Amino acid sequence: MAKTAQFTTTEAGEAYFKRLMELGVFEGVPKTMALSAECRPLIEALHHVLAGGKVSVTVESEGAVSVFEDLQDKLAKSVEEANSLNAAGTLVASP
Prior knowledge:
Layout: H1 11-22, E1 26-27, E2 34-35, H2 40-50, H3 65-87
Antiparallel strand pairs: 1-2
Helix pairs in contact: 1-3
């Protein structure tokens, strides 16, 4: 049986994760959610990189600039806030 767990992050980290969800990183309803068909190959490629492999990613068509920049900014702020808190002795995770 699945159990819940606590995950400590910053407000910026939470905002980043929420935005990913809003934009459709997962599809389906809560009981049958799965990675979206568009995101699955990217996550699998990331797993290969983390396992020591080498991958290639090609952007075939750029998305909306404002959404792209918003995600980039949210991720950067999340990492910045997490590093700041971690340096102060509060351990938090960042995307």
